[in-house]
Amino acid sequence: xxxxxxxxxxxxxxxxxxxxxxxxxxxxxxxxxxxxxxxxxxxxxxxxxxxxxxxxxxxxxxxxxxxxxxxxxxxxxxxxxxxxxxxxxxxxxxxxxxxxxxxxxxxxxxxxxxxxxxxxxxxxxxxxxxxxxxxxxxxxxxxxxxxxxxxxx
Length: 153
Hints:
Blueprint: H1 3-19, H2 25-35, H3 41-65, H4 71-88, H5 91-105, H6 109-142
């Protein structure tokens, strides 16, 4: 594939992540830091986010299966996922965790489970989108190109 086409595809794909509401301006700010002279910055931050979130979702899921429910512990796990998701701009995951925490306050296990399922679905979609975006970046660099600079809107 021609380099120009790869760059165009990258721009379009990146824009779709924001248009569809998966990511917000925080992710754009991370990208700006990378363009400021830290190549690989976004990939490093995303890798840490995904590793931490995978682990936290596993312990949160296990906590949901416990009886009796420890809503304070579950709230703590959801708080960590919410914070790291907000840090990378994964707004749909963040929003689902906010709802989860509200239901922890109410000690509503059924709604907590619904929110956990939603958060995990949003996370899985966002994870796939991040992997695809990073793959596009790698292809551009391997072809000798420069990843297009995206402007904050």
